[in-house]
Amino acid sequence: MKKIMAILAASAVALTLMGCDLLAAKAGSGESEGTKTNQTITVDATAEAEKKLEKNYRRFVKQLGGSEKVAEITTTITFNDKDSILTIKDSKGKVTASTKIGYVFGMNKSWDATKDEATKDTTDTKLRDFYLFGFDPNGKRAYVEHYSNVNFKDELDTDETAIGTCDDAVFGGGSWAAVEEGKDYTVEDGEYTLVVSVKQKTKGKYEFFLGDKSLGTTKLTSKFVDDDGYAIGGVGGYVNVPKGGKAVVNYTTDKKSVTGTFFADEE
Question: CB 3.0–4.6 Å: which of 19, 78, 226, 233 could bond 29 by disulfide?
C-alpha cells in the first residue's frame, strides 16, 4: 500500500491536577480524584490533497484518560474554522467532502476476545468495542454508532474505510440526526462549541446527549459493568478528516462531570 504522507499528531497540551476533592457519587462506582483535562488532537491531512486515490478520509481515535471505568461524563469539544480545514471544495466552490468531529465512549476490550464470561477475564488483545458519536458541522447533523473488534491500542490512525464491525446504530448506518446551531451547539466567530454527555437512566445502557438533545439510548446492554450494574468503559476523541483537510480539536472535561474513574492511575 502506498505510504501515506499525511502528518498526524495527537498531543495532550495540558493535563493538570486541579485539587483533591472527591466526586459525589452518582451512577456508577469509584471516585475520580479532582482532575480537569485539556487535551488537543490535531490531524493534518493537507499533504494528501492530490493523493486521495481510493481512500479519501483519514480517521483518528485517541483514548482520553486511559481508564475504562467511566460510567457517566460530560466533555466540552471546541474547534474552529481558522485552525481547521473543515470542508473540501471543487473548482466551482461546491463542497465535496467535510470533516467529522466526534467522541468515543463505552470503550472496552472486545467481548469476542473474553476468555471467561463469568469473570470477564480478557486476553491482552488490541481489539476494542466502543460507541462513536460523530458531528458534521457542514451538514449540521450527527450520529451515534457502535463498533466492535476495532484494532486499537491507545490510538487509531488509519485511512481504511472500515475500522471494525458497525452494529447497534442509535443514529447511523446511513441515517443522521438533525442538530440545530444555537440550540444543540454554538458557533461564534467560527468557533464551534459542543457539550456532549454520556448518562445512564437505565443501568447498563448509555444515553448520549449533544447539549440538551438526546441522540438516543444504546440498544445493547453493556457486559462490562461496575458493582452497581452501571456500564463502564473508556472515552476518547474522534476525528475523520478528508484528504486535504485538517482538524484541531480540543477536549475539556471537568472533574465534577465524571462518574467512575477517568485516569488509569486512579484505579
Answer: 226
Length of the chain counted residue by residue: 267
Per-residue pLDDT of the chain (267 residues; tens, 9 = 90+): 333 333 334 433 333 222 222 222 234 333 444 557 889 999 999 987 666 555 789 999 999 988 999 999 999 999 999 999 999 998 899 999 999 999 999 999 886 655 455 555 555 567 899 999 999 999 999 999 999 889 887 789 998 878 888 876 676 555 789 999 999 999 999 999 999 999 999 999 999 999 999 999 988 888 899 999 999 999 999 999 999 999 999 999 998 899 998 887 665
Domain residue ranges in the chain: 7-117+125-266
Distance in angstroms (rounded) separating the CA atoms of residues 52 and 46: 11
Three cell numbers at 89?
Answer: 471544495
Query: Which one-letter DSSP state was computed for residue 153?
Result: B
Cell matching residue 264: 488509569
C-alpha cell at 45: 491531512
Could you report how far apart the first and last alpha carbons of the chain are, in Å?
Answer: 41
